[in-house]
UniProtKB/TrEMBL annotation:
Listed name of the protein: Glycerol operon regulatory protein
GO MF terms, alphabetically ordered: DNA binding; DNA-binding transcription factor activity
Known function: May be an activator protein for the gylABX operon.
Domain HTH iclR-type: 13-73
Length: 289
């Protein structure tokens, strides 16, 4: 079958759009498809469909059994990851809004992905550009408060992986020596929070608390501001960030093993939850942007 021609004035679909159409051909009713069925369902020309299918098999997103294709373990893992992140974001969202309303500072929710942190949520004014961040954006973990807060309560192999990736400077204040980063992580374990003192962006400071029970951190909540006034504010507001992180953890898992003394004060009540992104929306943010 010859490649389809593009009508004048219309843009050819991108490779990502073609791959999305190929993946969209698989559904619950038809978990196994032949090449011909994929072409019919997706509308992608044969040569492109065959090439994309081969690439998706190599990536582990699809499996091939004889002449048929089906969803692979890679897609199942992404689905589980998206479900986990959506559950985390859904539980945290009202508390993040409450923390922003009570402090006036930008609030972020981050998770660790390799040597980087990925922003799951950003709460602040629409016109607030004091901190250059966005949902789905990535930053090196070693120079962010959120990254250090998570790494401080991660297993040694995770920390070693970040060190092996390299501690590249983003500002003159970025920690670029392994000993300096290890010391910062030890201090974060002692304090329960981590700081970014203009290490990721000039004139931007942050404080972050990990989301964790008695074990490893799964995410971090950070408060960000710009200038010396923000630095004094963040030091003063550190207990509020800690309390918010602990409250989100309790919302997710209940008191659990962490209830050994009187519980810390919770964040102020938040607003109603926003509509959640679907799985492909999350994949677009975290994998392709």
């Amino acid at each position: 079958m010859p490649e389809q021609t593009v009508t004048a004035g219309t843009a050819a679909p991108s490779l990502l759009e073609k791959a999305a159409k190929v993946l969209g051909a698989f559904d619950g009713a038809q978990p196994r498809l032949s090449l011909t069925e994929v072409i019919r369902r997706s509308g992608i020309p044969r040569s492109s469909a065959h090439r994309i299918l081969d690439q998706l098999v190599r990536l582990g997103w699809l499996d091939r059994e004889g002449r048929d294709y089906r969803m692979g373990i890679g897609m199942l893992e992404l689905g589980a990851l998206a479900s986990h992140h959506n559950k985390l974001r859904r539980a945290a969202l009202p508390r993040l809004h409450a923390l922003h309303e009570s402090t006036g500072h930008l609030v972020h929710l981050y998770v660790l992905d390799g040597a980087e942190v990925v922003c799951l949520e950003r709460i602040g004014g629409l016109n607030d550009t004091s901190v250059p961040s966005r949902v789905g954006g990535r930053m090196p973990a070693h120079c962010t408060a959120a990254g250090k807060a998570i790494l401080a309560f991660s297993d040694p192999a995770t920390v070693e992986g970040v060190l092996a990736h390299g501690l590249r400077p983003r500002t003159p204040r970025t920690l670029t020596h392994p000993t300096a980063l290890r010391s910062a992580l030890a201090a974060a374990r002692d304090r329960g929070v981590a700081f970014d003192q203009e290490e990721s962006h000039r004139d931007v400071v942050c404080v972050a608390a990990p989301l964790r029970g008695a074990g490893r951190a799964v995410a971090a909540i950070s408060l960000s501001g710009k200038g010396l006034t923000a630095q004094r504010d963040l030091e003063r507001l550190t207990p509020a960030v800690l309390a918010c992180a602990r409250t989100v953890w309790r919302d997710l898992h209940g008191p659990g093993r962490t209830t050994r003394s009187a519980p810390p004060p919770s964040c102020e009540p938040g607003i109603s939850e926003q509509a959640m992104d679907n799985m492909m929306g999350w994949i677009r943010h975290s994998e392709w942007m």
